[in-house]
């Protein structure tokens, strides 16, 4: 197990290093050097030179950039004098994380349930219904679902608040809009996995031991079928977290996504790059955790060593 | 004894047919290729055919749609802003008085083109890289796949957003950004397929007959993975269309005066509380296009490889 964790850790660290190196060189490639253009005020220019060390040779800049990141310093805003990326993250990320965690939990539970229902009713109306919901969920983007929900439930029916983030009622629509695509993905995967497991030998053994169908489904089929679903939780987290960009915009949630889009609109390159690095590293860490969990749950993975 | 038991059937009723080699060897039905067979199966899948028809219809409208109305997609008209759909402006007008029918179908050109071109380029690069890695194996494979694995571990959207920040906005940068992050999945898929196929007897036979590497790859391995490639390609078109819409929505995609469905939806979302049609029209087209392509992709998967059917 220790070897497995070490292996995963090394891969994650290399990935993180590649990501920050790419970001570093992309900064150098930015057209027209926006960091030092005339429009940038002197104080901010000072911030930029301090953070990136534009006056030093390239390899010193690189070392400085990496050591800044190791210290947890993600840089300064290019537009606002005293704003750092770290401050923005500290202020806004809790909202995004709150929304993201709700969406991951909601998507996992609903997706797995839908998949199980579909598989147990294979080629019956409930199966077709679940899979129809799933394919619609995959096809309709969150930025379509969000406004649609607002229009129906907030503006027409007046059941839920239109936007903002002030209590449970406010969380319902954003969570649903954000997680629909992932619900669909998980449901399809869970269904396929359930149908795959049905044909395994241990299900036959369970049947011949005389276990009841309920016991077989709960104790053998579902428990084994969930395994592949866990592997997609990493990518699902990534999808949901980037999905918050638009969902936060639509529902006026003061999360990181809102600042991200603001940064893009203001051409605040250093802000956008700093936040992108943060997102990237966060998601690489999330993937690492999912890998470890998978290794704990499924011994075949960690013994396989890969 | 024997004749009695047969009853009324007497020996005279039976004649000897004789043996005809040509008849025995004849194939009863016209032989059909793998692709004809797949097409036959696909035609029976109603959902997939509906998807195909909708895609053809939208493509047709993307070509002729903008010419069906006298209004230009760029021309603003301050006296006719935010008009609801009417006989004059079939999809209404936007906040600058531009005709939304023309903009929707010009947007369809951009969205569909980005989706198809990005998916095709991804497929070509993915097949080349995956094919080389899988076929040659060993060190080449290890180096290529380590690189692919690491790139794959960086979230796709993060790569695309980074590329867009650096390349600037527009249609070409968007396609390039989607391709930089997009070919990895196809490369992994093709490599896996090639690894399996290259151990099979027909490849050995080709080698023994003296076929070159290029011939084995192009004539034997790629055609046999074509089904999987095609399914993946179909599935990646809606992915690219979605990414375009997503990026345009957050302000990193296609810039005016060009239009795309994602950009129309982004503008629509800002005003939909007052003018809901401005969001719902592009949203409808994005959603139905993605739905159609997904249905078609599912259908193709079932048609090309019945074993995968669940």
If you consult CATH, what is the topology of chain B? MetI-like fold
Helix content range of the residues of chain B, please? 55-70%
Q: What is the first-to-last residue Cα distance of chain A?
A: 11 Å
Following the backbone from N to C, one meets helices and strands of chain A in this order, namely HHHHHHHHHHHHH
Helix content of chain A: over 70%
Query: What fraction of the residues of chain A are assigned to beta strands by DSSP?
Result: under 5%
Report what the structure shows:
The complex is a heterodimer of chains A (306) and B (310). Chain A is mainly α and 306 residues long. Chain A has a domain of 176 residues: MetI-like fold (Orthogonal Bundle). In chain A, 78% of the residues lie in helices and 0% in strands. In chain A, helix 4 crosses helix 7, helix 8 runs antiparallel to helix 9 and helix 11 packs antiparallel against helix 12. The longest helix of chain A has 36 residues. The mean pLDDT of chain A is 82. With 310 residues, chain B is an all-alpha fold. Chain B has one domain: MetI-like fold, CATH 1.10.3720.10. Helix content of chain B is 70%, strand content 0%. The N and C termini of chain B lie far apart (56 Å). The interface between A and B is large, with 51 and 42 residues. Chain B: This is Oligopeptide transport system permease protein.
Topology:
The complex is a heterodimer of chains A (306) and B (310).
Chain A: H1 2-29, H2 42-52, H3 58-70, H4 85-120, H5 125-139, H6 142-156, H7 168-198, H8 201-208, H9 213-231, H10 233-251, H11 256-265, H12 269-297, H13 299-304
Helix pairs in contact in A: 1-12, 4-5, 4-7, 4-10, 5-7, 6-7, 6-10, 7-9, 7-10, 8-9, 10-11, 10-12, 11-12
Chain B: H1 2-6, H2 21-25, H3 34-44, H4 46-64, H5 100-136, H6 138-153, H7 156-167, H8 171-197, H9 201-208, H10 213-249, H11 261-271, H12 277-304
Summarize the structure.
The complex is a heterodimer of chains A (306) and B (310). By secondary structure, chain A is mainly α. Chain A contains 13 helices and no strands.
């Amino acid at each position: 197990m220790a070897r497995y964790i070490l292996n995963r850790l090394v891969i994650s660290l290399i990935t993180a290093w590649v990501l920050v190196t790419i970001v570093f060189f992309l900064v150098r490639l930015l057209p027209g050097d926006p960091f030092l253009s005339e429009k940038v005020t002197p104080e901010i220019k000072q911030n930029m030179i301090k953070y990136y060390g534009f006056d030093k040779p390239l390899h010193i800049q690189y070392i400085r950039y990496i050591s800044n990141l190791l210290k947890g310093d993600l840089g300064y805003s290019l537009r606002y004098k005293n704003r750092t990326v770290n401050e923005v993250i500290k202020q806004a990320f809790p909202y995004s994380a709150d929304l993201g965690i709700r969406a991951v939990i909601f998507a996992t539970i609903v997706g797995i349930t839908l998949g199980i229902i579909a598989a147990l009713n294979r080629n019956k109306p409930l199966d077709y219904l679940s899979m129809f919901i799933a394919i619609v969920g995959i096809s309709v983007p969150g930025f379509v679902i969000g406004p649609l929900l607002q229009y129906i439930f907030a503006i027409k029916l007046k059941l839920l608040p239109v936007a903002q983030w002030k209590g449970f009622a406010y969380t319902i629509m954003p969570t649903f809009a954000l997680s629909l695509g992932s619900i669909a993905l998980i449901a399809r995967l869970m269904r396929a996995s359930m149908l795959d497991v049905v044909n395994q030998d241990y299900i036959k053994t369970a049947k011949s031991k005389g276990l009841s169908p309920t016991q077989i489904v709960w104790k053998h089929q579902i428990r084994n079928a969930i395994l592949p679903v866990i592997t997609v939780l990493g990518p699902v987290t990534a999808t949901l977290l980037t999905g918050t960009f638009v969902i936060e915009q639509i529902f006026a949630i003061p999360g990181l996504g809102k600042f991200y889009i603001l940064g893009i609109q203001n051409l605040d390159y250093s802000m956008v790059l700093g936040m992108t690095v943060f997102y990237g590293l966060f998601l690489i860490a999330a993937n690492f955790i999912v890998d470890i969990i998978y290794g704990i749950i499924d011994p075949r993975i960690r013994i396989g060593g890969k | 004894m024997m004749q009695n038991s047969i009853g009324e059937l007497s020996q005279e009723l039976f004649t000897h047919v004789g043996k005809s080699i040509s008849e025995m060897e004849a194939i009863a039905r016209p032989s059909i290729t793998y692709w004809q067979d797949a097409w036959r199966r696909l035609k029976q899948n109603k959902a997939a055919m509906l998807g195909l028809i909708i895609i053809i219809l939208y493509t047709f409208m993307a070509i002729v749609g903008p010419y069906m109305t006298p209004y230009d997609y760029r021309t603003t008209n301050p006296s006719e802003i935010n008009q609801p759909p009417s006989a004059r402006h079939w999809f209404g007008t936007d906040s600058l008085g531009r005709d939304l029918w023309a903009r929707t179908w010009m947007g369809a050109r951009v969205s569909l083109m980005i989706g198809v071109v990005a998916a095709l380029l991804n497929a070509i690069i993915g097949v080349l890289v995956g094919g080389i890695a899988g076929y040659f194996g060993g060190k080449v494979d290890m180096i290529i796949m380590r690189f692919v694995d690491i790139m794959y571990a960086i979230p796709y959207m993060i790569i695309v957003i980074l590329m867009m920040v650096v390349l600037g906005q527009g249609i070409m940068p968007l396609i390039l950004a989607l391709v930089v992050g997009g070919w990895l999945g196809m490369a992994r898929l093709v490599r896996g397929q090639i690894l399996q196929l290259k151990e099979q007897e027909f490849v050995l036979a080709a080698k023994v007959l003296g076929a070159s590497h290029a011939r084995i790859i192009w004539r034997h391995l790629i055609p046999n993975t074509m089904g999987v490639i095609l399914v993946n390609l179909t599935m990646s078109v809606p992915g690219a269309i979605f990414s375009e819409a997503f990026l345009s929505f957050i302000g990193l995609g296609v810039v005016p005066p060009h239009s795309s469905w994602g950009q129309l939806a982004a503008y629509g979302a800002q005003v939909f509380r007052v003018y809901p049609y401005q969001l719902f029209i592009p949203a409808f087209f994005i959603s139905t296009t993605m739905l159609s392509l997904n249905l078609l992709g599912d259908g193709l998967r079932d048609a090309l490889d019945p074993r995968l059917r669940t």
